[in-house]
Write a structure and sequence with these properties.
Number of helices: 8
Radius of gyration: 17 Å
CATH topology of the domain at 68-235: Aminopeptidase
Shape: globular
Structural class: alpha+beta
């Protein structure tokens, strides 16, 4: 069995990550260690790397191949979801309940005994949110948070982290709203990280690491709009599905 050298990150959070194309780990493991300080997290995302680990283990950093992505300008909601969107039995907010969204994403799920969204991750992404880099989409029914998602935006790339629903289809509604907004704002790509059958049903495609990095580098080099998305939501037409 081939052995892979997975480097430990330098204590300095400003140091670059190893190039995942050079590591060659079959599951995309790039490095371990380090911390979740904003400067390190933002540097990781700019290089197509994200943290994913269990509570009690070292921080593990990943960049899998192929990469699961959505292209905002080409994405269309599936027909059943489109019917749900047209019924408009929900309201949408952005960046008004970030902590509630990430806490819900970290909650117990069917057939799962734990979560990768550790207390340290929750604290780190709340910090990114306060700095204007992490964002939440919130779907409300009768004034109550019923579904949503969160992720990180750099330049014209959105890195989707997790979603949840307490009512049927509300996480899918959040995704549809996100994609409509990203397309309206000229985003090139929404990174969904790892393929699964559920994402495939929502139209996720796959890119090789070389293809992904070509779009990534073009996107993160564009102007970074930092701050709340709450007021930007009014710029987007969410009535015509």
């Amino acid at each position: 069995m081939k052995r892979y050298h997975i480097p430990q990150l330098d204590p300095d959070p400003k140091c670059a990550f190893p190039d995942p194309r050079e590591i060659g780990h079959p599951e995309g493991l790039v490095a371990w260690g380090g911390d979740l300080e904003p400067v390190r997290l933002l540097k990781a995302y700019r290089q197509g790397v994200f943290p994913w680990y269990e509570h009690g283990s070292p921080i593990l950093w990943w960049s899998p191949e192929p990469r699961a992505v959505l292209i905002p300008k080409h994405w269309q909601p599936p027909s059943r979801l489109r019917r749900t969107l047209r019924q408009a039995r929900f309201s949408v907010r952005m960046d008004t309940q970030f902590d509630a969204v990430i806490q819900a994403c970290a909650g117990p799920r069917q057939d799962q005994t734990g979560t990768w969204i550790t207390p340290a991750m929750i604290e780190a992404y709340n910090h990114l949110h306060k700095l204007g880099h992490a964002h939440s989409i919130e779907i409300l029914h009768d004034g109550e948070l019923s579904g949503g998602l969160y992720g990180v935006a750099i330049g014209k790339i959105f890195f989707a982290e997790s979603k949840f629903h307490h009512r049927r289809d509300t996480s899918k509604i959040a995704l549809a709203v996100l994609m409509r907004c990203l397309a309206s704002w000229g985003f090139l790509l929404a990174d969904c990280q790892i393929w699964n059958p559920h994402l495939e049903r929502l139209g996720v495609g796959l890119l090789s690491l070389d293809e992904f990095h070509a779009v990534l580098e073009a996107g993160v080099d564009q102007t970074d709009v930092v701050g709340s998305w709450s007021e930007r939501l009014s710029e987007v037409d969410l009535a015509d599905w």
